[in-house]
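Pair request: fold both.
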Amino acid sequence: MKSTAAHDEKIAKMSFASVYPHYITKVEKKGRTKAELHEVIEWLTGFNEAKIQELIEQKVSFETFFQQATMNPNAHLITGLICGYRVEEIENPLTQQVRYLDKLVDELAKGKKMEKILRES
């Protein structure tokens, strides 16, 4: 499924701070913790808890968020469907990175083991 330029632009301009509370709610509703969410975000982006908080306070867009990230070299191992898109087939790099994060949060909420989420095995 191809995303449109308008869709990619909308995702790029969306603020990380506006989505972050939804990530927290999603994982906590399923019995996971904010610490586990931060572990997943740090694995993908290299951001520690202090940096995540700073980016939230600055209300950075996803575009800025991922420009500042040091993507995990194993991020390409994240595959599957999220929001109707197969993440490994998304052509726009930024949209793909946002969907990688969505996919990891989804896996966390679904109760996957952390070593599977972090692509360690």
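--- second member of the pair ---
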Amino acid sequence: MLLALNFDWLTNLLAILFVIACLHDARYDEYGTLTLAAAAMGLIVMAIQEFLQPAFEMAL
């Protein structure tokens, strides 16, 4: 249960994915689609953490 409410590990994983995507796009992709996808996933996780985590904490 503690792991489900702790978003730090997911945020760190997405940060690593974003760096890898940036390095890959810098070398192979001129449009940066992988970087944009990783950034969008990061924003989604931050939104979930910001808006849903207080609801989970209040439910406990």
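Observation on the second member. The chain has four helices and no strands.
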